């Protein structure tokens, strides 16, 4: 699949979507995103429901008008919050087949259901809606993993039903509707991954995501499982490698069939003064598979205080075409917000350069 079309607009694949949890890629505005080739972002349904909330988003006609960004907007359902807030801390709430009840500050909160998640994503004005799923904790017992798969299927059915109700209520047709994706769960069990994919495909979705951790026992990308799962998904469907990290992992996953990617790494690393760079001019897409083709620059180190060279001579971003390593080092040292902006622009430009090369030619 070379492109996806939603609401009359076509986006080339592969595509990388940075994290814009609350409607902002931290430190950047929409002009910055456009200038470095960012064509879409991922926002978070659960967090946007709290702030700014549905009423504000409805008044502005959705998140795109609110943040003045015209690209693709995918809304994460809130499934990660189920994992991060509850699976890790049972006192934060509880999960059952009805939905998720979060407890914040010792106070019991309203239950968050698959239907609520879908309705909120329509208020967000998302181009791609993702069903609420029960994120499988890493190394869960077989019983817990099966429970997660079955609950994910149940929630996917309810999400699809609510999605169809919303289409009718809002008068949306096949040309104006958002797409809807579901998430394949099953942890490290190939049998349960097959079961999850089979059941979700039977319900019917526009695309499917890789649920749970992509990490193997050595802390790297689980290449075997990621390849196994992508082959379960029909080739006429969009394949979303949720939470994919490094540029070389993106290149590998694209080579086996995944075509949509998102991750917090480039923006988070920028905030922590870790910058990405190519070791040589990126000319061949097959080079992108090799981790040794890249290097990290820890810009706060003393050796860069007088370095007149750009972050990377192979990058055409705002930071690299105008400023030296010494200046960016200085900005971080004095805690000026421009440091965050320049570092984030640079790291995201490295990612979009990888995407552009992958679009231009097949991997060898």
TrEMBL record:
* Entry keyword set: Glycosyltransferase, Metal-binding, Transferase
Q: Which GO terms describe its biological process?
A: tRNA modification
Please tell me which top-level EC class this enzyme sits in: transferase
- MF GO annotations: glycosyltransferase activity; metal ion binding
Coiled coil is among the record's keywords: no
One family from Pfam that matches here is TGT
EC identifiers of the protein: 2.4.2.-
InterPro entries according to UniProt? TGT-like_sf (IPR036511), tRNA_ribo_trans-like (IPR002616)
Domain tRNA-guanine(15) transglycosylase-like, first and last residues per copy: 3-359
- Keyword rRNA processing tagged: no
Q: Which domain of life is it from?
A: Bacteria
NCBIfam families in the cross-refs: tgt_general (TIGR00449)
The protein's name is: tRNA-guanine transglycosylase
UniProt source species: candidate division WWE3 bacterium
